[in-house]
Amino acid sequence: MLEEMAMVHFLERFDQVPFSIKMKDKEYQIGKGAPRFSVTVRKPVSAKRLLEGTSLALGEAYMDGDLEIEGDLYQALDLFLGQMGKFSKDEKALKKLLFSSLSKGNQKKEVSSHYDIGNEFYRLWLDDTMSYSCGYFRSETDSLYQAQVNKVDYILKKLYLKEGMSLLDIGCGWGFLLLEAAKKYGVRGVGITLSKEQKKEFEQRIEKEGLEDQLSVYLMDYRDLPSAGMTFDRVVSVGMVEHVGRENYQEFVDCVNQVLKPGGVFLLHFISGLKEHPGDPWIKKYIFPGGVIPSLREMLSCMAEDEFHTLDVEDLRLHYNKTLLCWEENFRRQAGQVQKMFEERFVRMWELYLASCAATFHNGIIDLHQILATKGVNNELPMVRWY
């Protein structure tokens, strides 16, 4: 009974949106007015764990089935996570989780833990492009597939590609961007990734498209780029810098600078935070070990140190909200198949991940930015937005 009351007392701080908590034969009301959603608690979460790491404690309770949301998970989280500023996080107690090693070996292990789950798993709920980053919805009726095609087309236009140019994709994923660049613009492309599964799939796609003379993919850490003896007219990185770690942002930009030709164009597409913070403990434990979200000002500052001239900064936050909702819908349809591959706890974890990320983008807790810049001054590009 004491643990039950302690949990209710802790949750009373989240009174901005009214909701109800059902425990055994009792129901508690948080906030004033008619409840907007309801939470069933089968096993109370201790106040100590909630104070140490609110997201970790509540996230694990949901994964274990000790906490259930009645109705639409995303809608409830969208209302609740607008108050994430009231979450508790003891950085000292969670130090090992929040601040992991930035060594090449550890970062490869962290990246593999997420992206090497298996291509068949991702194929279940991503679209046919196998794009695992924010889409670009030109209209309300665009499908997820069309939004991903739009996104890549938009990025390639921003890069102002010409036939015969060389393009590096840092964190190339399953390769759709480079495949499109090679086919539509006649460029020569190189992709690097730390995921064996992504490399294998990309190589198969290169062979299928007959683009072996134009495209290559390497299992490579970005820090090895300067010693690889390659230079490029254009560099793009989509959703990769979030895995670099705060202490390595400048080194990441330095590596781009060293392989990009003078006057070359660099596009950086990344999840961003309004301010600098070490990250969410639940996300870092279960979804993206070692992941840290840069602030926009951090990346602009690092780029300025290497004399990158910023041409354009664009926010695509609501596009990522919609992308995640499409993924969540696809994932829910395939939940039975996923459970056969893994287990129920894994399914609940991924449902929570996709829905909570959609909610945090909708609430502006995180953003999605694209920075377009040139290495030094480039006076040859059009004066107007050619894209």
Distance between the termini: 61 Å
Number of strands: 11
Radius of gyration: 22 Å
Proportion in helices: 40-55%
Query: From the helix content, strand content and strand pairing, which structural class follows?
Result: alpha/beta
Largest sheet: 7 strands, mixed
Walk across the major sheet and give the strand order: 7-6-5-8-9-11-10
The fraction of residues in strands falls at 15-25%
The H-and-E topology, N to C, reads as HEEEHHEHHHHHEHEHEEHEHHEHHHE
Instruction: Categorize the overall geometry.
Output: elongated
Mean pLDDT, all residues = 96
Quickly describe the structure:
With 387 residues, the protein is an alpha/beta fold. It has 16 helices and eleven strands.
Protein model, in words:
With 387 residues, the protein is of the alpha/beta class. It is 43% helix and 18% strand. The chain has 16 helices and 11 strands. The chain has helices spanning 2-11, 47-52, 54-63, 73-80, 95-98, 104-115, 119-125, 144-158, 176-185, 196-209, 249-259, 281-286, 296-305, 317-333, 335-341, 344-362, and strands at 19-23, 26-30, 38-41, 67-70, 166-170, 188-193, 215-219, 232-238, 260-272, 308-315, 367-375. Strands 7-6-5-8-9-11-10 form a 7-stranded mixed sheet, with helices on both faces. It has a 4-stranded mixed sheet with strand order 2-1-3-4. Helix 10 (196-209) links the parallel strand 6 (188-193) and strand 7. Helix 4 packs across helix 16 (344-362). The longest helix has 19 residues, at 344-362.
